[in-house]
Design goal:
0% strand, elongated, mainly alpha, 57 residues
Length: 57
């Protein structure tokens, strides 16, 4: 069995995690509030574009 070795996390990695969490929360906020029971097409297209960009990171 391999021994698990602890690794220190750098400040850059923590900052990157915070940016990623903020991006995910912004993405979910885009489609969280439907207008008249549905999501407008332009909002959905913006959502889709942002999701694709964030997933490419």
């Amino acid at each position: 069995m391999k021994k698990i070795i602890a690794k220190l996390v750098g400040m850059f990695e923590l900052f990157y995690d915070l940016v990623f969490v903020y991006a995910i929360s912004s993405i979910t906020a885009m489609i969280h509030h439907p207008v008249n029971g549905s999501i407008p097409l332009i909002t959905f297209l913006q959502f889709l574009l942002v999701v694709i960009v964030v997933m490419q990171i």
